[in-house]
Amino acid sequence: MSFRSIITSIALIILVSACFSVDLKTQQATQKKKPAFPLLIDAFEDSAIYLETNFTQKSNYKPITYTRNLDTIIVNYILDQDIRRTKTKHEIQKYMHYHRINIIVDNVTGATDENIKVIVDTTTTISKVKYKRFSHLFTRHKAYPTYIINTSLKDTVILGYDSNIDALLEAKNRQNEWKRIESLELILCRTGRALFVLPEKDTIITATTIFKGNFKTKLRLRLGKAYSNEFEGFINEQQLSLSNVEFY
Questions:
Q1: Burial of 35 (0-12, 13-18, 19+ CB in 10 A)
Q2: Which of the pair, 48 or 84, is modelled with greater confidence?
Q3: Same-domain pairing of 117 and 14
Q4: How confident is the model at residue 25 (pLDDT cuts 50, 70, 90)?
Q5: pLDDT on residue 220
Q6: In this predicted structure, what is the pLDDT of residue 68?
């Protein structure tokens, strides 16, 4: 075998080995990489409808799960009733992980962009329950899964009271100004109500309603002084008027 043939053979062996190494590393990286968000299974998503209204809506954000670090989550809007009904020690502990009556020992603070990250995932849809006043009747509206992440290493962040997350949806008007299209319900007495909190390095999932209307605009979710990613959607312009408020 000539010297040139030997050199050519060695070069081919090195090239094949390098390609195999790259393919192996790519395969390993693909296997290790997890999806950015868990798979949400909602049996009622297909029957949900878009919400079309001319009124500013009542804020309606509740967790769809208290279970963390799962690849697949079943969407559930009756968590509180489920947990109170089961009354197992594990379920009560899981529930109270987010509900604090005595907060003296906690490093508690409000939501800001420095400790909370809000992500509205517009790549998929789930259903969202809206109850009628003084009734067990409800409708299901289409919604985007929304992830609230406590990025702090030490702070417990207040989300709201009981199991309500005090988030508000905002939209841009024709003057390019952000206006809220949802309002918090005025509660004069909060005595005996537990704070709803998100401990450090924890994530909770809720849902942002998808509206239907004739005005295309940008929207975002606000929680305290923290803001979500902006996304496009449709509303009716009357929703931008706070004089038209429909709490139920």
A1: exposed
A2: 48
A3: no
A4: very low
A5: 98
A6: 62
Amino acid 52: pLDDT: 94
According to the model, what pLDDT value does residue 190 have?
A: 60
The tokens for 213 are 């209307």
Q: Which residue has the tokens 């299901």?
A: 140
- Spell 75-99 as b/e; 16+ CB within 10 A means b: bebebeeebeeeeeeebeeebeebe
Closest CA to 131 of 156, 164, 96: 164
Specify whether 98 is located in the same domain as 125. Answer: yes
Which ranges constitute the DSSP H helices of the chain? 3-32, 79-86, 89-96
The count of structural domains within the chain is 2
DSSP H helices in 33-150: 79-86, 89-96
Q: Which two tokens mark 159? A: 């989300």
Q: Are residues 19 and 127 in the same domain?
A: no
Q: How many CB atoms lie within 10 A of CB 117?
A: 16
Length of the chain as a residue count: 248
pTM: 0.78
Same domain? For 51 and 14 the reply is no
Question: Under a CB-based contact definition with an 8 Å cutoff, are residues 146 and 138 in contact?
Answer: no
Can you give the residue range of the structural domain that contains 155? 37-246
70, two tokens: 């799962």
- Average pLDDT, stretch 18-36? 48
